[in-house]
Amino acid sequence: MRRFFAEKLDISGGEAVLCGDEARHIKNVLRYKTGDEVLLIDGGGAETLAEIVSLGDNEVRLALKESRACPADPEVRVTLFQCLPKQGKMELIIQKCVELGVSEIVPAASKRCVVKLDGKDNKLARWNKVSAEAAKQCGRATVPAVKAPISLDKADLSGFALVLIPYENEGETTLKSVLRGREAPASIAVIIGPEGGFEPAEVEDVLNKGGVAVSLGRRILRTETAGMAAVAQIMYELEQ
Ligand code: SAM
Question: Are 203 and 171 members of one domain?
Fold first, then answer.
């Protein structure tokens, strides 16, 4: 069944109104008729079965039926703190990590980032659009937020059940061993370094805040690969 992201989902009295591109797509491209059913998604995590009751030029009215939690969204909330990569990689990282189940992405500036923090806010709208498109494509009902970039040493890690810092010099502890040795955490922070990796003091700072340094395997992954690998391994291990 087709799903429609309705950022402007106007729900009142058991009805919804879809406007703009989504409405035109339903009417003129898909040529849906009254009585046809679709899934409405507002980006907040639920999906609602709805039946088309009328089709106008710029709006489609629908009667709402049952809502449910979206099976494509994972229970575990993974927040990726991605140290700013060189130009053009962030969109790939966002797209792939949203497909893999990340819940939030926080661009971070660390000591060895080549790209500087200033002026990244103007990329936020584009980055969040990439997230919304990826969420829609992979059938999620939640659109992971890409937050405003922060300095890594200012990251608030206190609210996470588990904080992982995949560290290229970590030779012992694997992500698997950390996840298998405990109950499935409800929320995980994953901190990925830039192309130049982490300064040892940065890793130390995260460990002092309760983080765990883990290896992602025997090979050194590119920064744009490492976040995807970490999220994929978490979802595999937690079967989500
Ligand atoms: N400059 C580093 C070096 O040559 O050793 C490589 C940094 S790597 C390109 C970027 C980030 O990906 C690292 O800081 C780390 O967060 C993550 N990463 C890459 N490979 C990893 C591995 N095998 N184990 C753990 N983390 C890894």
Answer: yes
The domain in which residue 221 lies consists of: 77-237
- C-alpha span between 199 and 205 (Å, rounded): 10
Q: Ligand 1 mean position to 107 CA, how many Å? A: 17
CB-based pocket (< 6 A), ligand 1? 166-168, 170, 192-193, 195-198, 215-217, 219-223, 226
Lowest mean pLDDT among 44-53, 115-124, 141-150, 169-178: 115-124
Report pTM: 0.89
| CA distance readout (Å), 80 to 45, 66, 231 | 19, 32, 8
**Residue 79 near residue 178 (C-beta atoms within 8 A):** no
For residue 191, the ligand 1 atom closest to its alpha carbon is 16
In terms of domains, do 82 and 20 share one? no
Q: Does residue 226 share a domain with residue 111?
A: yes
CA neighbor of 179 nearest in space, from 144, 212, 136 = 212
Residues 132 and 21 in one domain: no
Given ligand 1 and candidates 113, 168, 170, 205, which is best to mutate, with the most ligand atoms within 8 Å of its CB?
168
How many CB atoms lie under 10 A from the CB of residue 229?
A: 18
Q: Provide the domain count of the chain.
A: 2
